[in-house]
Design brief:
Chain lengths: 203, 474
Amino acid sequence: MDKFTTLTGIAAPMPLINIDTDMIIPKLFLKTIKRSGLGANLFDEMRFNQDGSEKPEFILNQDAYRKSQIIIAGDNFGCGSSREHAPWAIADFGIRCIISTSFADIFHNNCFKNGILPIRLPKEDVDKLMDDASRGSNATITIDLVNQEIKGPDGGTIKFDVDEFRKECLLEGLDDVGLTLQKEEKIKSFEDSYSASMPWMAR
Amino acid sequence: MGNPRTLFDKIWDNHLVETQDDGTSLIFIDRHMVHEVTSPQAFEGLRMSGRKVRHPELTLAVADHNVPTSDRTNGIVITNEESRVQVEALEANVKEFDVPYFAMDDIRQGVVHIVGPEQGFTLPGATIVCGDSHTATHGAFGSLAFGIGTSEVEHVLATQTLLQKKSKNMEIRVEGALPQGVTAKDLIMAIIGKIGTAGGTGCVVEFTGKAIMDLSMEGRMTVCNMAIEGGARGGLIAVDQKTIDYVRGRPMAPKGATWEAAQAYWSTLQSDEGAVYDETIIITAADLVPYVTWGTSPEDALPITANVPSPSDAPNEGKGVAIERALAYMGLEAGTPLTEIPVTRVFIGSCTNGRIEDLRAAAAVVEGRQVAEGMNAMVVPGSGLVKEIAEEEGLDKIFTAAGLDWREAGCSMCLAMNDDRLAPGERCASTSNRNFEGRQGRDSRTHLVSPEMAAAAAITGRLTDVREFLKEGN
């Protein structure tokens, strides 16, 4: 997994609430057996007409936002399905951080597994950043994960929370599976006592 | 005996391998279901790192999302190449990693969340995961069940554990009895309409109260299935005699002395008297009527007796903008009575409402009637076994005589990954779980309803209050 330490980039404002996983990556693109290449279809139905031409009003089709690395989103971003294709598409497009008042749980988890930092902030902070983001490429935002700070274009700073373990994994680009397998002995000893007390769970 | 614990606390404590200082916990997973859409990259990850599946026997794979629902008498052909490759990838992976698999031509094949309970793979008190958000369904058995992403699928395959922070615990208590014509589906839609799609975010929801415990296991599965549409990690319902009776004798359920021991333990799977929830919401069942969604979020649920809302009804600006967008997408005008919305398509099926009880309920409404002119209504059983039971009961004949299309098992038009989909602009009364933009096909328009309401809409060609049919004393 790519490390995430500090990110400075353009932020795209997407104030719509409840942006769901079907909007982020429609089911058509879930048929892939790979993780890569999904960025081309990120927000596909919002971004493109049926003939493949761009919808000019969509934020990421506007010149100032084509290279966005951050999304400032309305409430409850990522609701819906568990598809990890959503964060894969987001990361593949080049977006590494999403800021909202709230995220759907599974999507939120999936982001961390893919080097994307989802940040939850109070509404007034999200509103301020939404405002900043609407100023386009003149308004870059810096995300400093080490110090858990967001620096806006006008020099203001917003602190944010992140789970310690997840922060560590992002900073170091750590692979969860590898970490857990180091706990083999603990898992084995759990399994032994569990199969003794709940034998019906075995198959 | 320590502090009183909720059902969620009990299951959580029972599966805890370790907890780190920041609260991140490693929990053991009893049952892992796998389907073709969210697993190829996970198996690929195992292959790349030279890892094995730790407990293939605790894993069960089935293809459902891409599977065609057309007639299978001459074999199953997936014409879309990407769909076929995805199913073939699953077949190759289960072989390579020795994972139990129900092939497409196996009568046990079906939607993964129908198959698990049907086989007794789903057990009370278990932790159950699947790379699919509707895994919440299995919470109906008093099991902690939730959807995970593909990286987590890989983690479970490799370690049989999952890294989690303990969620909060919400209680949704439904007091009293549901009125006639009001189903589990209406109830959960009413709940989501009330709490919103983010209402349960960060929570496992335990559904309690008389109306919940009065539900059949099928109805409880419908309620838990859509807990995710209210943002909840999972839904949970206490174990009672109905739960145990449902599991007894299923092919993968414990037998003999082990069954006796299991049953004794399962009987303890309720929240203790005095256990504390982080939040409790109370719903009065008697107030409910059949529900439908009008818009593009499951929270856009309203009583069938209501009118399409206006942006000015919104509680805040964000929702107002969303309503305006949804009205345009759905091709609706504010103020229109919901019962005046015409539909030309009906879909009865999915992990929400593709069980035998759902098909019986829909058949009872259409029996002796004819679908509306120009109606294209499909009935897709949740599994091959559901289909078999339905045919034994003659439900297929009732549906086809009424002009509905009787099909093979799969996810089908719930998310339109196979060939079953709406054309742009087509409007469907659907027993599925999501009415998102594009969910049933690009520019498709979905109204979520119960099986009874879907059946009624098929007959009238518009969204219909099924209680009118009941009054006629069918």
